[in-house]
C-alpha cells in the first residue's frame, strides 16, 4: 500500500491534508492515485489507513478510515553509533538500518575516520524518509549530529557492545545469551573503514562497553553495522 509521511499538524479528526510538494508530485505523477483509492499515512506514532477524497494542484485530502497503533517498531530501543563511512557506504548503512528498525543512528567522528564531514544530514534524513515509506515503518529513524566517542551517553543504555575484530573471547552470541532479561536500551558501536584505535577500544571498555567478535572474517563496516542491527532487532 502506498505510504506517505505526514506531520501531525496536517492531521484532523477525520481528514488528513497532504501538502508537501514532493508527496503530491509522487502520489499524482508516480503513483497516479485516483479518488476513492486507499492509501496509508504515518506520523511517526500512528498509522492511518485513508481514502483519497480530492486531488488538487497544491493539496490532496484523504479521509481517515482507520487509526492504528505502531506495530512495526521494536519495543527495545536499539541505537547504532557508526564511524562515518564514505558516501555510498554510509547511505547504504542508513537505508538498511532504517529498514531493519534501528531507533537512532549516531554518526561517529573517530581517529581513523576518513569521510569528510560536509553537511550530509539533509541527505541522510531523505534516505531515512524514503526507506521508511518503502518498508512501511511508522517511526522515523533519528539521525543525530556527528559525535565523538567521548560525547556518547553510555549511562542510558542497559547493554552496550562494540564489535571488535581483535576480540577473541566474547562472541555476540554469548553476550546475548548472558542478557536474557530483555534490555530496554541497547547501543552498538561500529568502527569506520579503518577500524578503531586500541585506545578507543580501551576507552569504550572503561565506559562499560563490551567488545564482541563477529567471527574470524573481517567484515566491511557497513556489513558489520547491518548484521549486528539485524541480529539485535530479531533477538529482542
Ligand atoms: N581493522 C579492520 C581491518 O583489519 O581491516 C578494519 C575495521 S572493519 C572494516 C570496520 C568495523 O567493522 C570494525 O571497527 C568493527 O567494528 C567491525 N568488524 C568488522 N569485522 C569484525 C569482526 N570479525 N568482529 C567484530 N567486529 C568486526
Draw up the topology in text.
Blueprint: E1 3-5, E2 15-18, H1 21-30, E3 38-42, E4 46-55, E5 60-69, E6 77-83, H2 87-100, E7 104-109, H3 121-134, E8 142-143, E9 147-148, E10 159-163, H4 172-178, E11 185-190, H5 198-206, E12 210-212, H6 221-235
Parallel strand pairs: 1-3, 6-7, 6-11, 7-8, 7-9, 10-11, 10-12
Antiparallel strand pairs: 2-5, 3-4, 4-5
Helix pairs in contact: 2-3, 2-6
The structure holds S-adenosylmethionine (SAM).
Would you give an account of this structure?
- This protein has 2 domains: 3-69, Hypothetical PUA domain-like, domain 1 (Ribosomal Protein L25, Chain P, Beta Barrel); 77-235, SPOUT methyltransferase, trefoil knot domain (Alpha/beta knot).
- The model has no long low-confidence stretch (mean pLDDT 94).
- The relative contact order is 0.16.
- The protein is elongated and about 60 Å long.
- Strands 6, 7, 8, 9, 10, 11 and 12 form a 7-stranded parallel β-sheet that branches.
- It has 236 residues and is α/β, with parallel strands linked by helices.
- The protein starts with a strand and ends with a helix.
- Helix 4 (172-178) links the parallel strand 10 (159-163) and strand 11 (185-190).
- The protein is built from 6 helices and 12 strands.
- It has helices at 21-30, 87-100, 121-134, 172-178, 198-206, 221-235, and strands at residues 3-5, 15-18, 38-42, 46-55, 60-69, 77-83, 104-109, 142-143, 147-148, 159-163, 185-190, 210-212.
- Bound molecules: S-adenosylmethionine (SAM).
- S-adenosylmethionine (SAM) binds at residues 163-165, 190-191, 193-196, 213-215, 217-221, 224.
Amino acid at each position: 500500500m502506498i505510504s506517505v509521511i505526514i506531520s501531525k499538524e496536517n492531521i484532523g479528526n477525520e481528514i488528513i491534508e497532504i501538502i508537501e510538494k514532493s508527496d503530491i508530485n509522487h502520489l499524482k505523477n508516480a503513483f497516479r492515485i485516483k479518488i476513492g483509492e486507499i492509501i496509508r499515512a504515518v506520523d511517526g506514532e500512528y498509522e492511518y489507513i485513508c481514502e483519497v477524497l480530492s486531488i488538487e494542484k497544491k493539496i490532496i485530502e484523504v479521509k481517515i478510515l482507520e487509526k492504528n497503533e505502531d506495530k512495526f517498531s521494536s519495543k527495545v530501543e536499539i541505537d547504532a553509533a557508526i564511524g562515518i563511512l564514505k558516501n555510498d557506504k554510509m547511505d547504504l548503512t542508513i537505508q538498511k538500518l532504517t529498514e531493519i528498525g534501528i531507533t537512532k543512528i549516531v554518526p561517529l567522528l573517530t581517529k581513523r575516520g576518513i569521510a569528510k564531514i560536509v553537511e550530509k544530514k539533509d541527505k541522510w534524513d531523505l534516505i531515512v524518509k524514503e526507506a521508511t515509506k518503502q518498508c512501511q515503518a511508522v517511526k522515523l529513524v533519528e539521525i543525530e549530529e556527528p559525535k565523538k566517542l567521548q560525547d556518547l551517553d553510555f549511562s542510558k543504555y542497559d547493554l552496550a557492545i562494540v564489535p571488535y575484530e581483535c576480540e577473541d573471547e566474547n562472541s555476540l552470541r554469548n553476550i546475548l545469551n548472558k542478557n536474557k532479561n530483555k534490555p530496554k536500551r541497547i547501543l552498538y558501536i561500529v568502527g569506520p573503514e579503518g577500524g578503531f584505535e586500541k585506545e578507543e577500544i580501551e576507552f569504550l571498555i572503561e565506559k562499560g562497553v563490551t567488545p564482541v567478535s563477529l567471527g574470524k572474517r573481517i567484515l566491511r563496516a557497513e556489513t558489520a553495522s547491518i548484521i549486528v542491527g539485524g541480529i539485535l532487532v530479531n533477538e529482542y
